[in-house]
Design goal:
four-stranded antiparallel beta sheet, alpha+beta
């Protein structure tokens, strides 16, 4: 049915006029302390409902001053999860109405989510209706409308009193000469928006309230967005509250279903999220996808080897150094290295601009490899020295390798002054934690009762807390495991993910080196 063919709105429909009192202005960290509902049918008030609600936090002083309610008044009141059935019974089959409806609706929606239930109602706002039916006034707040329509209010700033006043105002609207046209316009707007909520919310309520990774999937079962959370269901529900963001609204409208993968720990969730994003490249993971990939420096097997910046390794006879996170910095480092070792700049390009000696050779900045002016073996020695410099930067994300580079002979060259300064600044930001790729260590998270074995900067194994006493055999097996890890973008990403996790959670984690000589220290820590 097209929107233009929708029937006119029935003014005798059922309405539930709602007002709530809360602990604050934000539904994210606030709670309902009182709810009042006044039902209207056939343009007459039919019934009402009111209850206090016990919140999990103390009342702020300004709420007590505004409502007159104190903590002692709420001690015997039921928590919200005990009244959800009553609320849904009174709202069943009716349009949800409130003054500034988004405030009351979002608070109730959040409270239902906390109780593990979905909540969706078509709704009208008496502020917006008033502006259409009675245009030209400066103010449309509740006090102004009460005075304008001469509404008799009892217990202002209490839920049932304000709900009753709003209901009287709604009745004025329903008897307005233009009511049919205005209500029909708003009803048609409801028909074309937000119907996807009714379809998605029941499925969301089936998601686990656990740590893990979740995926928004389209009609073709392809992931459109991948995220991680310590509470999957709560996080996915929070996405629905962000539908004022255009991209988020489009994501929700095209979502057909959700997938969830439960993980035993936050670190596992982070690593799994990163792997799945790389595998599926979801359209709405803009931040992760738009990031440029890593680069390598390729050393060719020519008589005069070339140094080339490339996007990936290929199965050829070239030698690769990397991967590197910053292509810009590698270009800067190659430039400084070229000048220091007098490498030929033409042999650092995929295609040479000219044959014979290059212009840099004429200025004394090239050793002459481009024109055969240097012995190939001597030039290869320069290339090996360049490779050594580049290799220092391969793992420059760690404090240990920054120290190693700064102490090297190459780092003392005047041409690398700017590089040394930038690395010292980076070193000062890195906390002194065991994150060297060559080191083996255990991360123990007492809050999650879990442990992680980290080898070569990668997650080797996850242990439950009761298993931490019995991992000696695993440690011995990793001691004998000499298999070289293939360096690629995925391994570097995983290392960086682990490092960020350790840095951001440094205060709660216990970190113990597991070098062979430190086993006694580890045993003492566990005991």
């Amino acid at each position: 049915m097209s929107l233009s063919s929708l029937p006119i709105f029935d003014l005798d429909s059922g309405f539930s006029v709602v007002d709530i009192e809360t602990t604050g202005n934000s539904s994210r960290n606030g709670y309902v302390i009182e709810i009042g509902i006044v039902n209207i049918k056939d343009r007459c008030i039919t019934e009402s409902y009111q209850t206090l609600v016990r919140p999990p936090i103390a009342l702020p002083p300004f709420i007590t001053q505004l409502t007159g309610l104190r903590d002692s008044d709420l001690v015997a009141a039921p928590p919200f999860e005990e009244i959800t059935h009553d609320i849904k019974t009174y709202l069943d089959g009716n349009f949800f109405v409130a003054h500034n409806v988004s405030f009351d609706y979002e608070f109730l929606k959040t409270e239902f989510e906390r109780a593990g239930e979905s909540f969706y109602k078509d709704r009208f706002c008496t502020v917006k209706l008033g502006r259409k039916l009675f245009p030209g006034y400066k103010q449309y707040n509740l006090d102004a409308l009460i005075e304008r329509f001469g509404v008799n209010v009892q217990n202002r700033h209490r839920a049932l009193g304000d709900a009753m006043a709003t209901a009287e105002i709604l009745l004025k609207y329903l008897h307005h000469p233009n009511a049919v046209d205005v209500f029909t316009k708003f009803a048609r707007a409801l028909e074309k928006t937000e119907k996807w909520r009714e379809r998605l919310e029941p499925e969301i309520m089936q998601l686990p309230s656990a740590k893990g990774v979740y995926m928004f999937k389209d009609a073709n079962d392809l992931p459109m967005y991948i995220g991680k959370s310590n509470n999957i269901r709560s996080r996915v529900l929070s996405h629905l509250r962000e539908d004022d963001i255009p991209k988020k609204k489009r994501l929700l409208r095209y979502t057909e279903r959700f997938d969830a993968i439960v993980c035993s720990s936050e670190l596992e969730s982070l690593i799994l999220e990163s792997r799945l994003i790389k595998k599926h490249q979801p359209f709405y993971n803009v931040q992760q996808i738009q990031r440029k990939g890593y680069v390598f420096v390729k050393i060719t097997n020519d008589t005069y080897p070339k140094l080339l910046v490339v996007d990936s390794r290929t199965d050829d006879d070239g030698e690769y150094v990397g991967p590197f996170r910053s292509a810009k910095f590698i270009e800067y480092l190659l430039d400084k290295t070229q000048k220091h070792l007098k490498l030929c700049p033409e042999l650092m390009k995929p295609r040479r601009n000219q044959k014979g000696f290059c212009f840099s050779y004429q200025l004394g900045g090239c050793s002459g490899a481009c024109g055969g002016g240097i012995d190939p073996e001597a030039y290869s020695e320069h290339i090996e020295e360049a490779k050594t410099i580049l290799s220092y930067y391969t793992h420059m994300d760690t404090k240990e390798n920054i120290d190693l580079f700064l102490k090297s002979r190459e780092a003392r060259k005047p041409e690398l002054t700017e590089l040394r300064k930038s690395l010292r600044r980076e070193k000062s930001r890195i906390k002194d934690i065991p994150e060297s790729y060559e080191e083996k260590y255990m991360i123990h998270d007492p809050e999650d009762h879990i442990g992680y074995l980290i080898v070569d900067g990668l997650l080797k194994k996850v242990f439950r807390e009761d298993e931490l006493q019995d991992i000696e055999l695993t440690l011995q097996s990793t001691d004998s495991d000499k298999q070289k890890i293939m360096e690629n973008q995925d391994t570097l990403d995983e290392r960086l993910t682990i490092q960020r996790y350790v840095r951001s959670n440094r205060n709660k984690l216990k970190i113990v080196s597991l070098k062979t000589t430190d086993r006694e220290t580890y045993g003492a820590y566990l005991s």
